[in-house]
Amino acid sequence: MPKKLGNIFHRKISAWGLLPGTFAIVLVTVARLTGMLELFELKTFDLLVRLRPVEPTDDRILLVGIDAEDIARIGTYPIPDAYLAQLIETLQTDKPAVIGLNISRELPVEPGRVELLSAFAKYNNLIAVEKVLPAKILPPPGLPSEQVSFNDFPLDADFHGRRQYLGIPTSEGYKFSLSLRLAEAYLARYDLELDNGVRDRTAMRFGEVELPRLYPNSGSYVGVDDGGVQVLLNFRRNSQPFRTVSMADIEAGRVEPEWIRDRIIIIGITDPNFQAVVPTSAAGNTFEKIGGTEFQAHGVSQILSAVLDGRSQLRVWWDGWEYLWILGWGLGGIAIGYRTQRLWHNVLGVGTASVSLIATSYLAICWGWWIPFIPALQAFLLANFLDRISYVYHKAKQIIDQKKKIIEQNKLIEQTFNIIHNGPLQTLATILRQIRDGNLSIETLFSKLEQLNTEIREVGDRLEEQVSDGENYFHLGGRYSIDLKLPLHELFDFVYRDTFDRDLFHFQSIKLTEVKFDPIDEQYLSQEQKHELCCFLQGALCNIGKHAVDATRMSVTGTHNINAGRYTLCIADNGKAVESKSEISEGRGEKHSLKLEKKFTDGKYKRSFLSPNGFECKFSWKLIIALSSILWIPTNLNAFAQNLPIQNLVPTVNTVAGYEPPPDQHPPRTPGGTTSSLSSNQASFGYEPPPDQKPPEDSSGSTSLTKYLIGKF
Amino acid sequence: MRSDRSFDRHTSPAHNLAVMNQDLPEDLKILVVDDHDIVLDGTLSNLKEQYPEAEFLIARTARETRNQIERSQPHLVIFDLSIPEDNLAQEPKAKYGIQVLREMMQCYPELNLTVQTTHVKTLIRIKQQIDIHQGGFTIVDKKLASREMLVRVNLALQGATHTRDLRALGRSMEFRPEWTNVLKLAFEEGLQDRAIAERINVSPRTVLHYWTKIRDVLGVYSEEGKNLRIQTEIRAREEGLID
């Protein structure tokens, strides 16, 4: 059978019902926009990147590392220029495509300065490095700009490297990074030149392949420093991503010439005591850091693989798509919440959806798409959770409401019985008695029946009033009702007068009534209790009118016994009530009176015959102050809050453990001047640096980390 | 039926008044409360004729009434139940009058009061408080002749109670238990007031107050040449209240 569309959801969707879920989505969106999720997202990114399948070693790159043994053998550090010059000479014999010397040589390290400088002059496929961000280190003097590159790298808020620079505008002109210079030299052999991007003019491009530029809010980043041109670093997933040899290997000829010929050679320090390191958990090694030279190699390899092999680069969605994605998952969470009624159905749905989200995110990363995972999952789970909570809450409320309704209904039924019992039934009893006694004329009967007719009609009106007025009124016979807010003794007086005014047969013989109602403090009674008491008084008086044969006196008193703390309501007469004993004890009035006992503290109900004639009906209860009047709620909660110790909410930022400053770095200098006009003639080939680029901020990242932490707390 | 009989007892009110005027205080102060100037003028002229020596104060609203009573401590308040609360622009309502009446009876339990109203039944609300009020309390239906009004004013000044109009609709006589007790002690056991007071543990003054209430219920009001106590006993026996 085809389901109706409305039945797809178990619950009707109302605007209010969507509120908790929407709130969750908004919450997650705001959290992401304010950068609170950045760290979690970056860590998740690292994890997904690490879990990708293994890739082959990139044999286009050879790392020549000067390791601990080399340094020990040379016996001095820094390595003298002569050794570097000698190493370059040796390598050049095997015709490499390009050599990057990832060792700063602003100042001479004698001996061998002349030899090194002449090597640079002799080989234009030899590229030197400088450091362009504070503290700056200049390249060896006298080199043309094509042979100079920088090896700065940016760090994220958690001090991890996930990005690389391609170019940076400086006061000395536009500079290119080592990785870009090496890739450029290598790709020139394939007639692929560096050029501006087509889709994004400010991005860089080789041939058809554009290197997707990173922006402040790309992916999970929030307001990240996008100085210069940066790309996400797509680490080559392999425990040996590149061939690595030592200086000694080269000099001893232990390296196959094919490893060098037409390859990119990067010379750098690999001795753990002296090398620069980049902390990263994305690269997938156990130490969560890699050497600076290897980091550069990843940068080169990523460009080459993308351009030549079609390997995917890391790309991100446009911000709008990202938030639509998060919204979509949030709505999914709500939908599952709506669709399922049982908890385990919901859990199953949530589990399936979560797994598919994880799978999607992983596959996307493998294809080079970095999509929001954590926020989507959070929006999904939170929206579902809040929706579920509100559903459970509404369900519980519904049940409570239903119960309340039933109680209300029962109350109404009880009230209806009371009204009928204390009204029309009394009239009917009188009529029956008079007919039995045989002293009822047709005229009287007619008028009595008319009265009965009116009384029964009034029952409906009174019930209606009772429903609309709630418990606030007690309805006397006919059209009168009295406000239960009046003091008890006044209420009793009203009830007594009204009831005694009724046309009940045995009231006619009563000549004397003793009436007295002691006042009591209002705090002892609820309005419902007052209502019950009025009902009781009315019923008891009606009983006298019906049953007290030949009564001449009647006593209606409410006495407050201060010593015992009790109030006694007593209704007595001196009539003969012999004939109707059974009626008295089994009537509805009796049942109601017994129920009355339960509604009062220590309520006691008693009926007894008096001698020689008469009947007494008594109800007494203990006066207890209503709980609501003695409740005390502390109003000075603020005082508690003020006494809380003020904790230092801003943790101090420590330097990252394990980060060793590279040996080839000078002590920091004062930051250099700002960007001046860029001379395009310094730019390499066809790539024009975009005019809106600004130099990156200090790459230490400590400022943004502090900001991040403060923002988080 | 019974109420008819009680009215018969006041056939010569003017005569009664002459007798009663004798034991009034010299600096008699009477507060008249009414929001209608015409009614106020009429009442005042009648009263001035009756009590030429008296000082008359007037109040038109509930608030003025409170102030006047507090300031001048009158011997008698002739009170219109339907008055405005604060100023004459407001609609006069019986509930404001009732409220002032409650306060007056609570703060000055011995104050003599005469209440004028067109709706006597309204007072049923405070019947219990009237029953325990120790000063004079008389009710005048505004429809009554001014002669009858003066009689009731006089009764109030004497500290007597006249509230029969209030219970004219009821079938039976209505007593408080302590009053029936006084009746029994006086006429079945033949006790004097002082003895009664000792027996029921109240002051002799309270017993006197009970008597005024009992007489009011029985419709016995002072008449020249008749003994009130004996009159009361006769009526109580007629009604079968005592054996």
UniProtKB/TrEMBL annotation, chain A:
The keyword Membrane applies. Keywords: Coiled coil, Membrane, Transmembrane, Transmembrane helix. Residues 655-713 are annotated as: Disordered. The keyword Membrane applies. Residues 672-684 have a biased composition (Polar residues). It holds the Pfam family CHASE2. Residues 442-469 form a coiled coil. Residues 37-336 form the CHASE2 domain. This is CHASE2 domain-containing protein. It comes from Zarconia navalis LEGE 11467.
